[in-house]
Amino acid sequence: MHEVLAMIGIELQRSPLNMSIVWALMCGVGVYFFIWRTRWGYEMRAVGQNSNAAQYAGIPLGKVIVMTMLVSGMLGGFFALNVVQGEAHQIKLSLVNGMGFTGIAVALMGRNHPFGIVLASLLFGFLYQGGGELQFEYGVDPRIIVVLQGLVILFSGALENMMKHPIESLYLKLTEKSRHADVAEAN
Amino acid sequence: MEAFNNLILILDATLRVATPLIFASLAGLFSERSGVVNIALEGKILASAFAGAAGAYVTNSPWMGLLFGVLVSVAFAMLHGFATVTHRGDQVVSGMAINILAAGLTAALGNFWFHQGGNTPNLVDPFNNIDARFTPITFPFAEQLADVPVIGGIYSELLSGHFLLVYVALAAVPLSWWVLFRTRFGLRLRAVGENPSAVDTAGISVVGMRYFALVICGVLAGLAGVYLSVAVTAQFLPNMSAGKGYMALAALIFGKWHPRGAFLACLMFGILQAIADRSQGASIGGLTIPVQLIEAVPYILTVILLGGFIGKAVAPKAVGRPYVKERE
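^ inputs. structure came back:
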């Protein structure tokens, strides 16, 4: 990446950052258009929300599932672009390194929307890089990142209702109070 | 005689390999029959294996290790219950979170406490006076009978000389069948998994039943983990569960959510693994089969069997669905 940017006059430090990030962002935009702006994406969302209703509406269930899996497999395969072709230039045994599970966490945090996913992946990128630096500087165990990851999935995915209800009721109470105050003032 | 001895050795290894799978799939059976999807088995096995090994090392007693392992596994099960039963979170997501949490915590804590790259110290260490491993149980007269042709092989090699937990696993299968299908508690537990609102109407707490099922699940998964670390390897290694939790889930589905079926499926996985282990370096017509291929065979066969021969497996009806008492 630093070589490409140097060509257009931006000087960057040498880093493993490579063109795959551009491709990843393009894929994000592409996925958005595919899911929310095409007929295939519409069928996909319909099957996901209520497969029975979708079937009665004439959407071929098997075809949609196979196509979704194809697209998903293709996107999953692009993972190797960054690691193999961008960074290491060879296949290492541990190249996946639990990234598939991290991907689930990222999708959950991003609320299954490409824009949110880009933000969430940035966060996890910070976490990974930060973990590495912490180990380098202070000798903190980098595996603590995996613990963090688990906690993020637990709280943002599984325990989402735990925070939702108290905050909802708090919000309702506050708005209720201010409405009462308005009414009192009007009288 | 040679073939018979081979068969006995393979069956012997089958029991050893299948034991954690049996425990784990019975654990999954209780939780899924009560309507809670449990892909957190893997994490529970890993966590209890670590807690068991660490506890056994620190207290120098395998029984304390067993206690610690089971307690930690139950604690993880309660976390799963808190997220999915109390707060009605997504059960698959919660299970995934617990798996990742367990993988991270065991490695990080292990490294922090014992400074061996995530391993726990060996549980059999004569220099430091540590002997905290379960020892195999030898049946009476096993040595005397060992030379008797057929009975000796079966009795001394196949039946005798396993860890206590192996026999516990074999006893747990009929026991959980009896609990699930012949007691009032089991009837209620299955009903919670099929139709929770009916159970609720009958005045039984759905939440309570599901928590209770998760406690049983935690105990059984804990036994699986302790078996791995305290009995078999006498040491905890990072990621030592190596997908056993997922295998157990596959066995559970393969066995159609029934103790007998799950038990047979576990034995099948075990026997495939045992055959693979024994036939390292085997050759067909002068062509040596690569070890990697033999090691891959159990997994390939699992995929084929699960994909092709499972028939129709009907899950408990309310599995994966959080119970909402009344819709507002």
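Chain A has a mean pLDDT of 79. Chain A touches chain B through 23 residues (CB under 8 Å).
thumbs up if we can close this ticket
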